[in-house]
């Protein structure tokens, strides 16, 4: 406290007004005293001044950095834009995979779905990763009714990578290749359920790619490369084929037309013979697909021996 002159000289001021005694002795014009408001808020003023100075210094550094970068030329301005990686795509894929694990794999009783997360952790095979993302995104898009997420690009990438890897015999012993075919079929099932269209195949109409998967299982068992994954995938296809056989029988016109049984009882025997023929034919198709006996401990002994080519 004191007049401005005494404060600058760091001497004691007698606080006389309107001029202090020191200024009178030195015959100086006393500059006066600071007002009460400035004395009360002098600490806040110093803090605000310090913050302002820091902000000014930061802006000056930014301007200096901008001046160091070379200016854009006309050719660079009109050049094609550079593609920037979209992190949101990766996040959607991660969410979709976890969603499929939660809906289909966790607490599942089907061996092929139980093994799916473990194979995903222990492998980095390109066809499997593309097929996993394709099936997962298709599953999430169907549940969320956001069909724009349908990953046709992932599906095409998985098929292309599968064509390349399946031509190498060393890759066929990898369980991830077999699971890739299974996931491609799962993707097709989700797509055809949404679009309500039928996918015609040789054996399993409700699960495409089954013929290729079964052919790969036959090859792996003959070469003694099969594992528990082969048994799980084979049992899944067998269950689907049995369910489909009953579904096809129920949709037979001879069984669905109940009025024939009511109006013409004599046709019951004939229709029963037709139903028996259809049932026998369906289970013969099961045998051609390689359905093992329920008591068989290993698929290798019971799979049929005739060769089957893989259409990949």
Automatic annotation (TrEMBL):
Keywords: Nucleus. It comes from the Eukaryota. The keyword Nucleus applies. Residues 2-30 form the Zn(2)-C6 fungal-type domain. SUPFAM superfamilies: Zn2/Cys6 DNA-binding domain. GO terms for molecular function: DNA-binding transcription factor activity, RNA polymerase II-specific; zinc ion binding. InterPro entries: DHMBA_Reg_Transcription_Factor, Zn2-C6_fun-type_DNA-bd_sf, Zn2Cys6_DnaBD. It holds the Pfam family Zn_clus. This is Zn(2)-C6 fungal-type domain-containing protein. It comes from Fusarium oxysporum (strain Fo5176) (Fusarium vascular wilt).
